[in-house]
Amino acid sequence: MLKRMTLLVALARETSSLNGAWRRRGVYRDRSDMPPLDAVAAAVGAAAPWAAPKWVWAFCWRAHARLLPALHARDGLTNTCVNLQVLWLKALAGDDAAYALLPRGFRLLVAPPLRRFYPRLHHQNIKLRAKFLDDAVRDELRRGDDDVAVVALGAGFDGRAARAVEDRGPRARAADVDLPEVIAQKRSVLGRADGYGAELIACDLAGAGVEAALARAIGNRTRVVFVVEALLIYLDAAAAERLLDACRGAPCAAVSLCFADRLAIDGVDEAAAARLFADRGFDLVRYLPKPGLARHMGVARRRPRRGES
Q1: Geometric angle at alpha carbon 78, from 137 and 26, rounded to 5°
Q2: Which of 19, 43, 121, 296 stands the most exposed, by the fewest C-beta atoms within 10 Å?
Q3: How far is 304 from 281, CA to CA, in rounded Å?
Q4: CA-to-CA distance for 40 and 25, rounded, in angstroms?
Q5: Which pLDDT tens digits describe the chain residue by residue (309 residues)?
């Protein structure tokens, strides 16, 4: 009898697992707080990813990760915090700057003629957050003059900061801050691109020296737009709070934070996100949750200090 019960329990667990694997990703009928991917895509203004079963998404992610060592056998790049994998996905999603950093031979796999044949899975999901951030940074830059720095924290191979300040005048500057090994890898491949307009700053954003790194990145500009894309996912709650505190204390008159990341809150409730930022001295001014690990997207601005308008 005991053996039969054990077998039934095992079968029930396996059936539940299989049912979960066949559930369409990005569709949460049991969660009214989480908008489906197609609704997020409509809000952002991009095509929606394919709501394929979860096992399809998982298979494609693992297969891509296993291909990376072969694709980068010559340049020796490694997939630190999945930065390399995201680089390929952004190139596949149409990011020309990302495409330029790929190995010249293998990059043809995601060249424009072939991109249309790939199903809209991970690369399109990443495109949603990338477009949200691009638009958010652009909107924040419009709020003031060009004496501004755009600083990508945990930038990986992304070129958003450099792209954002193009044609904005000599006082506008860009900086990418990331782990020393990531910055070294990025510097090693920038020769594939035609110039790069951001300063590369090596710093462990979960360790010491963050305030000094941010001050260097800002470079005495009067305002800063920080960009955080899938960085807080890799930090514990205490380190994430310290980083937000360092951003709040940035040595300039105005601070904006554009994020597409995982906040230390339960679920995706906007009020909870607003409280988290309020506790760190920011006002949440825009918010859009999205299925996935980087499920919280938005814009926060530092509250005016005493004596500031």
Answers
A1: 55
A2: 19
A3: 9
A4: 13
A5: 554 455 444 444 544 444 457 676 666 666 677 888 899 999 999 999 998 999 999 999 999 999 999 999 999 999 999 999 999 999 999 999 999 999 999 999 999 989 999 999 999 999 999 999 999 999 999 999 999 999 999 999 999 999 999 989 899 999 999 999 999 999 999 988 777 899 999 999 999 999 999 999 999 999 999 999 999 999 999 999 999 999 999 999 999 999 999 999 999 999 999 999 999 999 999 999 998 899 999 999 999 866 555
pTM of the model: 0.90
Closest residue by Cα to residue 228 from 132, 122, 92, 102: 132
Look at residues 252, 307, 257 and name the one whose alpha carbon lies nearest to residue 282. Answer: 257
Residue with tokens 């340049």: 75
CB 190 within 8 A of CB 227: no
The distance in angstroms from the start CA to the end CA of the chain is: 75
Superfamily of domain 126-302 in CATH is: Vaccinia Virus protein VP39 (3.40.50.150)
**Buried residues in 70-82 as b, exposed as e (16+ CB within 10 A):** ebbeeeebebebb
**Residue 43 one-letter amino acid:** A
Distance CA 124, CA 13 (A): 32
The C-alpha atoms of residue 250 and residue 255 are separated, in whole angstroms, by 7
Ranges for all domains in the chain classified under CATH 3.40.50.150? 126-302
Nearest CA to 297 out of 43, 88, 110, 92 is that of: 43
